[in-house]
Amino acid sequence: MQPITVLEVDPQGSDALSLLREAAVEARALYPELIEQDAPWPTNGPNPEGGVYLVAYQGRSPVGCGALRPLEPGVAEVRRVFVTRPGRRCGVARLVLRELVVRARGLGYTALRLETGYKQDPAIKLYESAGFGRIEPFGAYAGDPTSVCFHKDIGHKEGDA
């Protein structure tokens, strides 16, 4: 198996957008009752100030991604965590999550929040095993019974995920 490398990329670049499209195809299959099949495909805007977009590569192939978006002073949201089927069960998601924590600390964040869907058991297990604790749905997810939300204080210490 080729080594996995994680690089910061343009969220509007072809690798980021191809992973986003693949994630959207899976989401539509997993949640057909929530996502209209003719709904517009999601897109990525440019990175906001304090934001980061990462893509994991196995060799030259993009196999996973993740992003940070600022929420409020000191707090960022982990978004767009996705791993392709060939990249799963190889530690890609954990590697991306670990790098997001490192980048978040480097940007001065002291806490992370995230949301995933209630049917996404592997993601829920990953976040719990990485020290994220469940919280009530926040922001745009408030009141959404399909959202499972998490929080983690990251301070400025080494290690995690």
What's the structural blueprint in terms of helices and strands?
Elements: E1 4-8, H1 14-30, E2 52-58, E3 61-72, E4 75-83, H2 92-106, E5 111-117, H3 121-129, E6 133-135, E7 147-153
Parallel strand pairs: 4-5
Antiparallel strand pairs: 1-2, 2-3, 3-4, 5-7, 6-7
InterPro entries: Acyl_CoA_acyltransferase, Bact_Acetyltransf, GNAT_dom
Keywords: Acyltransferase, Transferase
Domain N-acetyltransferase: 4-155
What profile does the largest beta sheet have?
A: 7 strands, mixed
Helix content: 25-40%
CATH fold-level assignment:
Aminopeptidase
The overall pLDDT average reads 92
**Strands, total number:** 7
CATH homologous superfamily descriptor: Gcn5-related N-acetyltransferase (GNAT)
The best one-word shape is: globular
Going by helix content, strand content and strand pairing, the class is alpha+beta
Span from first to last CA? 22 Å
- What is the second-level CATH architecture? 3-Layer(aba) Sandwich
- In percent terms, what proportion of residues is strand? 25-35%
Count of separate structural domains: 1
Protein name: GNAT family N-acetyltransferase
Pfam family, one: Acetyltransf_1
GO molecular function: acyltransferase activity, transferring groups other than amino-acyl groups
Organism: Rubrivivax albus
